Amino acid sequence: MTEYRVVVTDHEFEDLSIERDELSDIAEVHDAGGHLESDPSIDDQLISADAILNLRYEIEEELIRRLDGCQVIARYGIGVDNIATDVAAEQGIYVTNAPEYCKEEVATHTIALLLSLYRGITRYDTSMVAGAWDHTAGAPVHRLSTQTLGIVGFGSTGRAVAARARALGFDIVTADPFIDKETAVENGAELVEFAELLERSDAVTIHSPLTDGTRGMFDDTTFESMKDSAFLVNVARGPIVDGDALRTALKDGKIAGAGLDVFPDEPPAADDLLRRHERVVATPHVAWYSEEADPERRRTAAQNVRKALEGEKPGDNINGL
User: Fold this and answer.
1) 4-101+291-310, what's its fold?
2) Where is the stretch described as Disordered (predicted)?
3) Is the pTM of this model over 0.85?
4) Annotation: CATH topology of 102-282
5) Burial class of residue 143 (count of CB atoms within 10 Å of its CB; 0-12, 13-18, 19+)
């Protein structure tokens, strides 16, 4: 019996077969056909939904207050900065994410960007394509066992990065207000304040959520505090880094380079320095991606919906209900 109505705001999948396989015995799954921007025709389809599956569509306060009987908003991903989670909590609506689905992929992608920067891979490749044979094209290159990696945000992904980085020989420091020293030590890192991390690190990787507190935390002052020889890797959320500050830091040599999978505005303009600078390694927000991760996030989101509709508290609930 399909008792409930589940609406998918937006997606990038060939079909919704995974969602329907998980939910067809209790719910009808509808495709609203939305995109990133708010759209009254999409909003109208959500008003009577018992549950919402969401990728990038903005679910803002006004919409949430109009929802009539919605029990859960389940996101196909980790970050929930496109959902007014506090308002959902006020309305008694669970908001869930898929916190583990791409931990391995993001950690591996972080290391891939880091190694490309450290070993000068893209600059050597460009030199080779141009016909050169020059061992200095990617210089300077440093031995990893002499380097300190600063990890900003030491949740499950940050810890997975630490495990991989330790295997490569890095010393590791981390800054995260939500963990204690024992947790850091157990995962091979030293817990320090953010300012100390910036001063000590030869490379910094970002794994924090986007919040009011982290938006723009990497600004002109931050880059002034980093070593001129340091690399920055951002695989978290683009707006954590002030784009203009990063462009200035790259142009003025305040940092040695950046590995970017996320950008302040996505996609960045074709002529944006953040995708064209010779010391930037850029990828199009794909750190999450693998053939295995994609269906996992869909199953996780659908299972969270199922739990809520069956009267259980979803294990991946993030808004305190």
Assistant:
1) Rossmann fold (3.40.50)
2) 291-321
3) yes
4) Rossmann fold (3.40.50)
5) exposed
